[in-house]
Amino acid sequence: MDTTGAGALIKALEDVGCEVIFGMPGGAILPAYDPLLDSVKIRHVLVRHEQGAGHAAQGYASATGRVGVCMATSGPGATNLVTPLADAYMDSVPIVAVTGQVARSVIGTDAFQEADIRSITLPITKHSFQVTDPADIPAAITEAFAIAAEGRPGPVLVDLPKDVQSAPVRYVPAAPGNRTPHPVVSPVQVRKAAQLVATSRRPVFYVGGGVIRSGAAHALLKLATRTGIPVVTTLMARGAFPDSHPQHLGMPGMHGTVPAVAALQRADLLIALGTRFDDRVTGSLPHFAPDAAVVHADIDPAEISKNRLADVPIVGDCHDVITALNAVVTTIPDLTPWWDYLNGLRTTYPLGYDWPADGALAPQYVIERLSTLAGPEAIYTSGVGQHQMWAAQYVKYERPGSFINSGGLGTMGFAVPAAMGAQVGAPDRTVWAIDGDGCFQMTNQELVTCAIEGIPIKVAIINNGNLGMVRQWQTLFYEGRYSNTRLHTHNRVPDFVKLAEALGCAGFRCTDRSDVDGVITEAMTVRDRPVVVDFVVGQDAQVWPMVAAGTGNDEIMAARGIRPLFDEE
Amino acid sequence: MNRHSLSLSLRNDPGALARVVVLFASRGVVVESLSLDPTERAGVSRLDVVLALPPDRPVTQLVKQLGRLYDVELAIEVRSQAA
Predict the structure, then answer these.
(1) Domain Thiamine pyrophosphate enzyme N-terminal TPP-binding spans what residues (chain A) (predicted)?
(2) Is A182 a domain residue?
(3) Looking at the structure, do residues A133 and A236 belong to the same domain, yes or no?
């Protein structure tokens, strides 16, 4: 088929199964947008800011398990994708970013809208291509999709000079190529792991996002149920194991539950699956899980023994590893004393919160009710901060992929565009973005995209009038000196209801406990456009439990000044 | 600091060397010497590098991080010595 580089690009994207591109045109990517107009297989969603395109591609990828695609022009269009690329790199999200570049003849001359996006993104992409021959475009796209999805998923950049897009070329579909198969799971290591399980007395499954990415949630449920071993799910793994399951102790880490943190600290065996011993989970490393032997399974060998030495390293896809463990773990220790201890903590230190003394709405209550009324079949996204932690703590997740948030990079403003992408990928599900008033002001322009493109997401702004998590740290560690954390959103600047309406959405406000259920129910009945609910909540609510940064997990505070593990010694 | 000598087989793609060097920079590796030479295989270069790492940073971790770069066909540790 005789075409152009741009035609080959669109045909190659169709051939690898791309069904939607989130993007925005501009000078250097103009040729690619021309054949896109004729594509019947690919929907293009015109965003209002390229960052929104990148996070939408992430939301789509996380909701569907497929590769998300975003597109932007050269220079500022490409640099606006830097944050989503870094985010996808940290959280192992498979996305492909296609960027325009200035023509080959002027690369390196500081041409208009020239930026060396390949070099800029070197440390935050899994791989990148700059295609200089139009005949190479199909192979670059096929490779980019394969690299993004295989092994540990991640972002891949494809940079296309404008004249390469315009050049005539004959379209030849790229060969699928020899992709790296999953590493074969070592049976010797799996047997060693099984032996450690058999002789342990206080084992725990420490479950990370890899279990979701590899589609291993069902296999984990089987293994956990059969062995009776306690389970904790990290921020990236919320939903990998049902919250309703009696063996689930919740989320570990800085804002984890007391029983989940205690399970890691008091364990004699950690079975770490698809997780990377992040500092937000481990706290001070020398004080983390001091008595535990470690079985660490991950598809990325570079993560094993990075932060904590593994006694039994297992390189492999989590689904393969868990299936192998299921076949060989036969001897199961008596866990009664271990469960007695953990259940005691569960009874004494359940998640809980106080109502603000001034009669304001409790943010945790809003999220609890949202979880109850929207249910486990909905998809929840969040930004970053207090509302994110409450969304992790108080929404009851029952299935993988139902919580999409920015864990590693901690990108404020992630919720709205990620919800947009998730809704495009899962049109039959209700998608709730749980957002903060600070985060919402960073990316709410994508609500225009949602309104115009018919993407009916719902946004719950947990509006505490402040950059809440920063304010919490100022309360705890800076003697209540609130430097630059007040956002004035409680003074209705901006007025989120009016803003929502201006952006083409339905807007509601809720300030009183008695209205919470009614407003959520009403928001759920709006299906023809996006909905924004401004939940005006108290500004002093804090996220508990908490392990202060840099301290050991034993110093977890169930509430300010209450250290259940420290005091039990 | 401990001194390590690594040898890499690197695909001759544009940006391949930059990716390796950026990894050294972003992971806090001190590079003492670095040499890139052609091999008998077309399209593949050999990169020899001598670097320094603090004693608590195992070189195996760095070798694995290099190994996951797509343009790195092979990364091996040739020798190490405590400095």
Answers:
(1) 4-117
(2) no
(3) no
Task: Give yes or no: residues A524 and A488 share one domain.
Answer: yes
Query: Which residue numbers in chain A have pLDDT < 50?
Result: none
pLDDT at A569: 55
For residue A53, give both structure tokens: 């395109």
| Residue A325, domain member (yes or no) | yes
Beta strands in A19-178 (DSSP E): 20-23, 43-46, 68-72, 95-101, 127-130, 155-161, 168-170
Closest CA in chain A for residue B71: A127
Q: Are residues A93 and A157 in the same domain?
A: yes
Does residue A551 belong to any structural domain of this protein? Answer: no
Measured torsion, CA atoms of residues A401, A406, A408, A409, in degrees rounded to the nearest 10: 150
User: Which of the residues A11, A50, A364, A440 is marked catalytic?
Assistant: A50
pLDDT at residue A466, rounded to an integer: 98
- pLDDT tier at B82, thresholds 50, 70, 90: confident
**Does residue A511 share a domain with residue A399?**
yes
Annotation marks residue A377 as catalytic: no
Residue-range definition of the domain harbouring residue A229: 187-348
Residues of chain B with Cβ-Cβ distance to A151 below 8 Å are 68
- List the one residue out of A83, A278, A73 whose CA is nearest residue A160: A73
Q: Cβ B15–A119 below 8 Å, yes or no? A: yes
